[in-house]
Amino acid sequence: MIDENNDPDGNFYNQTISQDKYFLDNELNKLILDLNINNSKNVFSLMHINARGINKNIEAINQMLSRVNISFDIIGVSETWVSEPCDLIQMENYKLICNGRKTEKEVV
Hints:
Layout: H1 8-16, H2 25-35, E1 46-50, H3 54-67, E2 74-78
Parallel strand pairs: 1-2
């Protein structure tokens, strides 16, 4: 059932991929502890962030990453809303590989 007051992403993902979940940092830390995967060399870890404008949200993203008890192998960031060059964006302990928009109307 679609909830018209809910985030569009929530409506889409709740209907199509029921096993996926959005986590708050404390929920993610509990899951990491429960699964005993705190920076294990035997675990590949991937995180996706929908930045909705990375320039305005990079500080909050870095703060969240500092609060979770895992260093992700890869962090994918969508909706960065930046054009190249992206060298002003810093994520501590990560190398940024950027493919920003060439023009405002271009979809990458």
